[in-house]
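Researcher: Structure for this, please.
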Amino acid sequence: MVAFPFAGPPGVIWSATHRPGDKLVNKVQQLLFLELNEINFEFLQQYIAKGELPNFRDFLARHGFDETQSEQNYDELEPWIQWVTAHTGLTYAEHGVFRLGDIVGTDIPQIWEQLEEAGLKVGAVSPMNAKYRLHEPAFFIPDPWTDTGVCAGGLDTRFYQAIRQAVNDNATGGLNKKSVLDFAVGGLRNASPLNYPAYLKLAGAARGKAWSKALFLDQVLTDLFVRLVRGKKPDFATLFLNAGAHIQHHYMFNSAVYDGPHRNPAWYVHPDEDPLLDVYRLYDRILGQVQRAFPQARLMLATGLHQEPYGKTSFYWRLTDHAAFLRQLDVPFQSVEPRMSRDFLVSCASVEEANDAERRLLLAKAEDGTPIFTVDNRGADLFVMLSYPNDIPEGIAVIAGNNRIENLRRHAAFVAIKNGDHNGIGYFSDSGSAGSERTGSFPLAGIPDRIRVALGVNGRRSAA
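Model: Predicted structure, token format:
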């Protein structure tokens, strides 16, 4: 028998014992894991120095933070790769999950199943690239891009479906009528009255501040998480928030703590706006909200990666109707599924059909000679990115062999100008540690071990 003591709130020590295959019988301190995707802690510190972010200031002063290390190859520095690592304890070379949504084709044990097997009740809201494989979770609501199961009540499931439609159709249109109703009902069910003023402010700002919609969604997800944790009382639960990553990618050049040479055009965002400060203030309020709601819980924060300023101007575009555009290029396919931002998945009837689809997609070029797509051929499926990097001139056509599509701009929705680039260093902070106990740096794959030790569960899983 192995005992794992770990620190709880000041003056309290919790412990649990566990034999392989045993159920945990000792009470464990509730552990809540906030996944703040790609947030830059150096930026946090600079805003704190300006008098901002009081909850982060106090949390980091008490508990410090460590750096996490992930992959070395830039092509492998994607959040949907790193969060699989953070959830499984396996590096990319071990888990092999390269694309968003690909986790559903694997049976890799994730931290939630490992803890459930040890007798703990677990929950998750919007974990990136995670598969639903649990038997009796407190709740499991997946991210908007991964086609996996949902464990929630009927209203919450419909609320999730509305969120999924809104996120995937964000650049090309609004919610359909059913999703509007489901989102409204779900929002009223979950929104904390204490956050009503914040919701009204964000809704009012949405027309002039496009990033307000991402802030609104992360606050809704937080209120949903708090309600579910209060009601279901899981031993371990995770909340994934993505607005910070989205806003850094698109608006970093407007930040008061960015000191580089680039600036966003005024038509894109007003020079006096600081969207990064807006999202960091939101996350500061969320940290305080979770601390107040669960004062006895142990909190862990992690970012997976962080972002650094991008060195050139690059535009992001998204097809408005993926299937119709592919048909005009005579690309064979069975189905098309939009993914995050510029990406989409093309499913074909056979490997031969996929090869033909890949050939036709790679033929497609704008009239200026720039390729339109990059393609990852995975057998009968293609993972495709609309990779045209420039501002699309009005009237420019797409040519692919004998096919010609007039005016590409009518078929593509502007998403953003790229400001932030991925960096493999992430950050981790734990309320179970004092600031003086920082180790400095550890592999991102070590996070599940830290969670298991904190909860008194032994054993690192492998990809076998």
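Researcher: Any notable elements?
Model: The domain at 2-310+421-455 is CATH 3.40.720.10 (Alkaline Phosphatase, subunit A). The first helix runs from residue 41 to 49.
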